[in-house]
Amino acid sequence: MPKLKVKKGDTVLVIAGKDKDKKGKIVQVLPKENRVVVEGVNIVKRHTRPNPKLPQGGIVEKEAPIHVSNVMVICPSCGKPTRVGKKFLADGKKIRVCKKCGESLDR
């Protein structure tokens, strides 16, 4: 299972597909499938039966996962979509850094 360069809570830009150029926050990361669920992106309609959660049933719109290669992390400090680099701190901790400005992507 490869290590993904995105985390839940990252703001990302969709760079390919029907929702190209949309921005959103990562809601869920699915590392086994190499996919992420982004808020407000790749909306699909699901026909659901009545259940305790949704007593009347009907058509529900929800976000579907998209491939991680179709998103790019937006750097919080420079505000641009960027590639993600790794850097080791003095105490041996590994952090993600913006390839454009060199600032840390981890809070």
Provide an overview of this structure.
With 107 residues, the chain is mostly beta strands. 0% of the residues lie in helices and 43% in strands. It contains no helices and ten strands. The radius of gyration is 17 Å and the shape is elongated. The two termini are 25 Å apart. The mean pLDDT is 93.
Q: Topology, please?
A:
Blueprint: E1 11-14, E2 23-30, E3 35-38, E4 43-48, E5 58-63, E6 66-67, E7 71-74, E8 81-82, E9 84-88, E10 94-98
Antiparallel strand pairs: 1-2, 1-7, 2-3, 3-6, 4-5, 7-8, 9-10
Task: Give a summary of the structure in a few sentences.
With 107 residues, the chain is an all-beta fold. The protein has strands spanning 11-14, 23-30, 35-38, 43-48, 58-63, 66-67, 71-74, 81-82, 84-88, 94-98. Belongs to the universal ribosomal protein uL24 family.
Provide keyphrases for this structure.
single chain; 107 residues; mainly beta; 6-stranded antiparallel beta sheet; two-stranded antiparallel ribbon; 0% helix
Q: Which structural class best describes the helix and strand composition?
A: mainly beta
Question: Share of helix among residues?
Answer: under 10%
Output the helix-strand order.
EEEEEEEEEE
- What is the global morphology? elongated
Mean pLDDT: 93
Helix count, DSSP H or I runs of 4 or more residues: 0
Terminal CA distance: 25 Å
* Secondary structure: number of strands: 10
Rg is 17 Å
Task: Please report which band the strand proportion falls in: under 5%, 5-15%, 15-25%, 25-35%, 35-45% or over 45%.
Answer: 35-45%
Main β-sheet, in a few words?
6 strands, antiparallel
Task: Extract low-pLDDT stretches.
Answer: none
**Could you give the order of strands across the largest sheet?**
6-3-2-1-7-8
